[in-house]
Amino acid sequence: MNLILEYKNLSNYLLADKYVDFNKKIIQNKVSELFSDNFDEIQKIKVAFEYVRDEISHSWDIQSKRVTRTASEVLKYKEGICYAKSMLLAALLRCQGIPTGFCYQRLTLGDIPETGYCIHALNAVFLSNINKWIRIDTRGNTNGRNAQFLIDREQLAFPIRAEYDEVDYPTIFAKPIKITTQTLEDNTDCIEMIKSKLPTSL
């Protein structure tokens, strides 16, 4: 799939904001802990990706009602849904000057269309040494998922099933889109939010 940049200027993919709040000390401390001074760009992406994928629990997997809404909250509580986990990865990498954006998929909520649909969030990172954007998904490799950070090909948590009317949206957004951040802001019970209150299309 040909990815489409929301902005051609990569500086837009390096900014801190309310949700990607890498100006917070908790984020900066984690960056210092995760990255060695001699790490190159690819090593930093791999370490950050695997940390968020494996060490930050997806809220549904642990049946947590807590709603985390910013990168710093995700790091503090070590949990979040895909919208929130993607914020943390963006914060960790942007803090190191690595352009990171937000991408989305429309997926079945369960395994079949009858379960309904939801918007799923993932990230895209820019590898300057090969001038290439790569999508990666920190959702968490539970229940047979096998998302990886690979240079030569994409390996996401959820391959799209077009026959089920699932959709890969090609745009790389500079900020988390409003329908996802508003969903987090408007809900206080994460389990109920996932069951019935996630957006279903962009």
TrEMBL record:
Top-level taxon: Bacteria
Ranges of residues in domain Transglutaminase-like: 40-137
InterPro entries recorded: Papain-like_cys_pep_sf, Transglutaminase-like
PANTHER family: BLR5614 PROTEIN-RELATED (PTHR33490), CONSERVED INTEGRAL MEMBRANE PROTEIN (PTHR33490:SF3)
Name of the protein in its database record: Transglutaminase family protein
Source organism: Clostridium autoethanogenum DSM 10061
